[in-house]
Design a protein that fits this description.
- The chain is α/β, with parallel strands linked by helices.
- It has 14 helices and 11 strands.
- The strands form 3 sheets. It has a 5-stranded mixed β-sheet, sandwiched between helices. The protein has a 4-stranded mixed β-sheet with strand order 8-5-9-11. A two-stranded parallel ribbon has the order 6-7.
- Helix 2 runs antiparallel to helix 11.
- The N and C termini lie far apart (77 Å).
- Bound molecules: beta-D-galactopyranuronic acid (GTR).
- The site of beta-D-galactopyranuronic acid has 12 residues, from strand 3.
Length: 336
């Protein structure tokens, strides 16, 4: 009798516990699905008219449309929600920023796999890069961001990065001893050191002032960033060595993603995928406009005809950091 009473009490307790757990789960699933309105804050480092911001806005528009206004993505351009590093920390930890568009180089400190893209001279050109990004291996890297509590939704175009300086810079040996601002990426630091210069990590938003005051001599970026951030008005020497092609990534906090119903996840994923075409189209136009503006402003632009010399200098960096990506690198070499 006593035994059957305790079994009864135990079963009742289990039932109560199970109901509590289940109701918690369904509450979560319901938060972002039918009925409930959700606001997503998306941080963007670039100005309102920049190609990546065009991509973000297209994404927001498509999500709004497909969810009948239920899911509202608010895009905050111009770095107003913080520098890239702190914004990614927020997205990762579920802070006040839910989403961001960020450089994959910045992501390296949060997810070492992203370090692949920081390897110098990894891709020969944009078509080889996109053949990889669109491949199942490239898409897997996006998915693997989940191991770092972030949901990677899409890659965006970011061209090729090259060095620019307020000091003469027309050949590799000119880099010797120059103080060069770099993104927060260990591989980039090593690359710049291997090229004979002194790397200094600094948020993107501080680069213009640092170039003006001489805290740094140089920086490196693609033409749209070099131009839109006004760096070209201070750093009048641009050498087109194209050392990195680091794609941009559109990211969401993983816990937020997991709260959406499968139908809403599809809406968000489809919108992100569709926004890539808008960003790439805008990129092509903006890059052309930036190059024309840089040229017209009297910047000395040098193209590199002995790129093998640069590649040779960074070989130890590739050997050291590339070993963990050997399969991916071999695969990239098979792509056109
Ligand atoms: C740009 C990139 C930004 C930021 C910047 C930088 O190309 O789009 O997100 O990472 O470079 O150098 O910090």
């Amino acid at each position: 009798m006593k035994k059957s009473l305790s079994v009864l009490i135990l079963s009742l307790l289990c039932a109560v516990l199970l109901t509590a757990c289940n109701s918690g789960a369904s509450k979560n699933a319901g938060t972002a699905s039918e009925g409930a309105k959700v606001t997503i804050r998306l941080a963007e480092a670039h100005p309102a008219d920049y190609p990546t911001t065009d991509g973000d806005r297209k994404f927001a528009e498509l999500v709004k449309q497909a969810s009948n206004g239920r899911i509202n993505v608010e895009v905050y351009p111009g770095g107003t929600l913080g520098d890239e590093n702190s914004v990614v920390s927020q997205v990762q930890s579920g802070g006040t920023v839910d989403m961001t568009r960020v450089s994959s180089a910045t992501l390296t400190s949060f997810n070492p796999q992203m370090g692949l893209f920081a390897l110098p001279y990894l891709f020969t050109d944009s078509s080889q890069e996109w053949a990889f990004l669109n491949s199942s291996k490239g898409q897997q890297l996006l998915k693997d961001l989940q191991t770092s509590n972030m949901m990677g939704l899409a890659y965006y175009e970011s061209g090729a990065r090259s060095f620019y300086s307020s000091k003469p810079l027309t050949k590799l040996s000119d880099l010797k001893g120059q103080k060069i601002r770099v993104q927060q990426s260990a591989i980039t630091l090593e690359m710049v050191t291997a090229l004979g210069a002194n790397p200094i990590v600094m948020p993107y938003g501080d680069v213009f002032g640092a170039l003006q005051t001489g805290t740094i001599d140089a920086a490196e970026n693609n033409a749209p960033s070099f131009e839109s951030a006004n760096h070209y008005t201070v750093a009048k020497n641009y050498i087109l060595d194209g050392h990195q092609r680091v794609p941009e990534v559109l990211l969401m906090n993983l816990a937020m993603w997991n709260k959406f119903s499968p139908a809403d996840q599809k809406i968000i994923q489809d919108a992100a995928t569709a926004s890539v075409a808008t960003e790439k189209e805008s990129w092509a136009k903006y890059e052309e406009k930036s190059n024309a503006k840089i040229k017209a402003s009297g910047v000395t632009i040098t193209s590199v005809d002995n790129i093998a010399e640069w590649q040779e200098a960074v070989k130890p960096v590739i050997e050291k950091n590339g070993a963990q990506f050997k399969d991916l690198i071999d695969y990239i070499h098979t792509l056109k």
